Fold each of these.
Amino acid sequence: MEPIERAAAALAEARRIVVLTGAGVSTDSGIPDFRSPTGLWTRYDPRKLAYPRYVRDPAVRRLAWQLRRELHLLDARPNEAHAACVRLAERGRLAGVVTQNIDGLHTDAGLDPALVCEVHGTARYVVCLACGDRTTMASAIARLDGGEEDPACRRCGGILKADTVSFGQNLPPAVWARAVALAEGCDGFVAAGSSLVVYPVAELPLVARERGAPVVIINREPTPLDTAADAVCHGEVGTLLPTLVDALRA
Ligand code: NAD
């Protein structure tokens, strides 16, 4: 039996599937991941932009904004893997997508925002670390384009930051609680396009497994959780996830 057939067989009875998506789901949309040979990690160490440094050092903030601008995240469009999640929802078999991604592409693809749990936040918005004012990333990028290198909050002058969870920041407790509840309540779990090395998110497949849900992993490279999964499909998520979802049509 091919791995993808094994995956479909493992999920055949599942009606409350949770899909955990990582940066690999968005590489086909032109957004580099962190850990691949062409990933962002090879160009800069995101730990250098960790939260305490960002707050302390204007040079770190200038670099972070420059990278935001270079990434053109706002221009990216969803791909086949995002569309596959929408089809799973349309068939009534998706309990939710827990995503490590901050690019907003699941909802751009048409997935109901109520079904998306963005555990690492969103780069579509920026927040003021002093007064909490939340504005769009598009407005911040426009200010960068206008020559500002470290735009400050227009309301109070405080430090602005993408509304994402950086290294050194905790996950928002309510969002994390929802992700755990989804993993605990699902009857099938698919981890797609994630190296499964970033904690605590990498615990979620094991949470699902402890509750008896079959676990499927789809990724280009092996992950540390492959041995704990019921089926492992190594290859392109943009092909494998749609194939899996289409096999679950019946
Ligand atoms: P990661 O970079 O650690 O792992 C991505 C995995 O996806 C790798 O194992 C890689 O082999 C695989 N992959 C890449 N393209 C693939 C493809 N087309 N098909 C199949 N597999 C593919 O990413 P992660 O596990 O999500 O953790 C990185 C952290 O960085 C996340 O927490 C996320 O917040 C952040 N991040 C987000 C984005 C985004 O929003 N798109 C991009 C980069 C990093």
Note: The longest strand covers residues 121-128.
Amino acid sequence: MNQPPLPLRFAPAVREAIEGGAPVVALESTIITHGMPWPENVETARRVEAEVRAAGAVPATIAVLEGALCIGLEDQALERLGRSEKTAKLSRADLAACIARGATGATTVAATMIAARLAGIRTFATGGIGGVHRGAEKSFDISADLHELAQTPVTVVAAGAKAILDIPKTLEVLETLGVPVIAFGQDDFPAFWSRSAGVKAPLRMDSPEEIARAHLMREALGIPGGQLVANPIPPEAEIPAAALAPLIAQAQEEAEAAGIGAKEVTPFLLARLFELTEGASLRANIALVRANARLAARIAAALIRAEAEIPG
Ligand code: PSU
Ligand code: MN
């Protein structure tokens, strides 16, 4: 049976790093096209790449451009994606059709994990993963990101799940799916803009080395899937959960009243919160993604060191 060739297109620096066994961190592009307004989205994407480099790893921002699954984006491509207002949002379900048609789209956490695995990248930094939406018992809105974490072997660093989600239900689903959820440096699970969601994370780890060893052990045991590392937002950038709660409730009600569903829910809520907090949610979002990029770079390096220490 003939299959089409893998449609991967590597940026030269990323290819060199992967072939040379240097640490690489995957970055998603939906956060650029659907998570932040222009021009902050492009500025942030560049800063996040710079954070990864400063921490000694190579950044690989992932997107589909005219049918090519790009592993690492040129600066101009990043700018074009960030300026365009109608880029498709690609999750697991959308990836193959977009590539087969030669179309363009931004990858979510789920689709970026798939691309990272194909490219041989094991560490990925983002802002917040998708999860179980509030009211999911009626809407059935559960992000494909959770299922991806259960089957694709990538360690994803996020600032927890966005507080617009139902965090206890998100943790329940992750447990059901067998996804290790690791709070970094604290006991509590973080809530994106706030350092604590008011619930404990199932696991706590305090060093990149510990996280790397757990990643490799999962692989050795033949357990599919990745890990979620929940890195709390830096204290100086935090927005207290109590200040956000009424604004989240308002955005939620507006989404329901406007009949927003499926892929539009997350971008709608993020954009409304940006307005309702007069930009404060965006400033916090930028700070936490940068922090996640730094931690992911340390984990990527720790993975390589941990492997080198394995005898045989
Ligand atoms: N985190 C952010 N901003 C975002 C997202 C995450 O700070 O825009 C995106 C990610 O790409 C994530 C997606 O995978 O939202 C989840 O969308 P959904 O709930 O439709 O699966
Ligand atoms: Mn959804």
Note: The chain has one domain: 8-306.
Amino acid sequence: MNAPATAPIPVFLDCDTGVDDSLALAYLVSSPAVRLVGIGTVSGNTSSEQAARNSLDLLALLDAPEVPVAIGARDHLRKTYNGGVPHIHGTNGVGDVDLPTSPHEPVAGSAARLLIDLSHAYAGDLHIVAIGPLTNLALALREDPTLPSRVSAVTIMGGAALAPGNLSPVAEANIGNDPEAAAAVVEADWDLTIVPLDVTMENVLHEADRLRLLESDVPGARALGEILDLYFDFYLPTYGTRSSALHDPLAAAIAAGGVIPTLAPRVPVVVDTTDGPGRGQTVADLRGQSLGAVDHPGVRTRVVLGTDRPLGPHLLDVVTAPARRNAPVEV
Ligand code: BDR
Ligand code: CA
């Protein structure tokens, strides 16, 4: 893999680690285009505490134990944590695989605090990649409304523009688990890229890909192959073969520039925070888009509806590369 022409992007990852979150974390740590400078965790696939443990253990396996991990919100803004989705991500979030326990512990302070601190340390350059419910970002915006002025971009995995939801008929899980937080993130004044189910469900890993991970010389890649086993079972009825949607790693790869959006109009997006059947829906104004992307003037939110290449092969190349992990960034 060639070295990137530009300096690595400092990235704060907010996640509910999580099988596909694990793929995203490994991608960001392994991509030469990125330096992962901090991780915040939130409840979703598993609790925020367990997500932090999983993140620390993965970082150790990936030779990047120095990345600070902060435990974020256990409960969502209007709802207490419901116990996660053990039938999808396992009781421990990482497919019931026992990862070697890292000796590292979470840093003191909340995920929101770590994000705010990093926004000062990397002012103007920090890119947020959020791949769980958006509670921590909403709390950070509450604590420091000037946060967006120091953040270069935000990329989230979440929502469903024209595709059906996966938590409800219209709500995707990350948005539907905390619609109030998602609304705050969508309403904030920053460059926001939404990577919805419309594109993440189109990017898939297959059993042959999982075998390539299991046969890799890179310990972290082999762990990913094991972690994916249970997730492949969950997606069997959806795809007809044991395979996995690549929700979170697609957002990571788009943030890193490894996958380029080819259809991503900047359009108004509203999150439904009512208590009706539309709760958690991302309502994107895609009227008049049939001839290609038409950006609405002044809108800073883009919704990814098409990309330049399938993520799977690129993801495997990046996470199995024996390159040095987590390239340093110049400040
Ligand atoms: C999203 O929900 C979580 O379960 C996955 O990790 C992903 O972030 C997909 O809807
Ligand atoms: Ca996730």
Note: The mean pLDDT is 95.
Amino acid sequence: MVNLAAITERRPYNAASEFVDGNVKAGRGNKVAFKEGTRTLTYGELQKESCRFASGLKALGFGHESRMVMLALDTIEFPVAFWGAIRGGVAPIPLNTLLATDQYAYMIDDSRAAVLFVSEALAKTVEPALPKMSWLKAMIVAGDKNAIATGKIPAYSFDEVVAKGKADLFAAPTLSDEVAFWLYSSGSTGAPKGTKHIHSSLMYTAKTYAEQVLGMREDDVIYSAAKLFFAYGLGNAMTFPMAVGASAVLLSGRPTPDSVFEIIKSEQPSIFFGVPTLYAALLADKRATKGAGSAKLRLCVSAGEALPPHVGENWKKQVGLDILDGIGSTEMLHIFLSNSPKELRYGTSGKPVPGYDAKIVAEDGKECGVDEIGELIIRGASSAEGYWNQREKTRRTFAGEWTYTGDKYVRDADGFLRCCGRTDDMFKVSGIWVSPFEVEAALVSHEAVLEAAVIGHEDSDGLLKPKAYIVLKQGFTSNDQLFESLKAHVKDKAGAWKYPRWIDVRDDLPKTATGKIQRFKLREEDAGKGV
Ligand code: 3UK
């Protein structure tokens, strides 16, 4: 039996000591922890380099109780910087690498981080934000520090910081209950929220989901197409394999069918983690055959949005393995409901992971019966401490032991839980949030658009993509050229995956008496029409 109480008990504890130093102590100093292309990092190297990084940060004046924003690709430097920071008591804050300058400006300033760790390839996106940042005191660039003009902010290369630091083993005297790192979570309105996670939560997710549902073990080789900056990828490819002394493969580039099949073939992973859109794209490729190219593949996992049943069924037919769909969240850190190799029902998120309790509640707070839709709430020790400087939202989401997911769920007579959409207007595209509000804001900032409403519309794979309803300003007519220009405009303003795949021009949009757009009416109308 896994003793979960021992993990959450309040005590002096630094997660880096257990995840990094624990592996060296267990004799895995020479084992490869991470592989990225031709580069490798052993557990022993990770220990030394993370000590040097922590000590280098300290020498620059950043120690226990400071914060470091990370805008970093999945390279060998990621785990060194992440664990180096945690070791030094500095909270790392990995950011989504697919965002635009203004969004970075918001999160860097909101977090009040003193240090920004950035991969050279991403430096140009964040550069225009730097003169306006009021809290940043230093930049660390993985690569050439001259690739970015940092103005008054001193810049150091990753190598310089590591060289400055000492390799002596140390860890800041943190507590198991203390905030270790943050992740930003987005909502339907308003800005993203800094979600604060504590040191013990990392091992809690590993001992519950990774160990008991996946049975992850020392000889596993992990490949996660979801990047380390997502809570999903962070667990999959970093904390889970490290919790059992396994190895993870990292890809710094985009996970396309080509790059993913190439990695599966060359690295022969035993566990693969993806999102539904990627599985659908992989299935359309002729390489989606037995084991997908890896003789060792034993588990495939999907999360981020609901997996359409036919994707799982076709994968099973072509690849020979089931896809385990599970739901997790930034707020709960990782997966809390999941299918398992022993118990799987497509079209559902499975059952609660050992260590988590799930309830479906009606609006009056009463628990729903079988087949009654309500909001899914979760109890489990990996829940975040709260949102940074967002008291109202914190109180609403983290209600004592229970965390409100904002997801509508229903439980069937056999105890399987099925997702029925959101309680708000949010939806996921490729597992990444889209807020209709921000796509609409981008659309109305175009010269031709008077009003806009955006909903998720199912594509031919049963996966949601943005669909826009717009009212044009006088003097503009709808044509393909205008639609292309609107799509390009949204990509530029809001993010590449958020552009509307369909645009419907209307004379007016359904609104409440107070002028609020009624997206649910458009959704109902759209559902009636089918694809
Ligand atoms: C939705 C799902 C149906 C759901 C995440 C695994 O996605 C993760 O975190 P986010 O904070 O989003 C959380 C929300 O995404 N969702 C996620 N998985 C599923 N809906 N079926 C699923 N399998 O709305 C949830 O509230 O981006 C996923 C591990 C860690 C994570 N943070």
Note: The chain has three domains: 43-174, 198-380+396-422, 429-526.
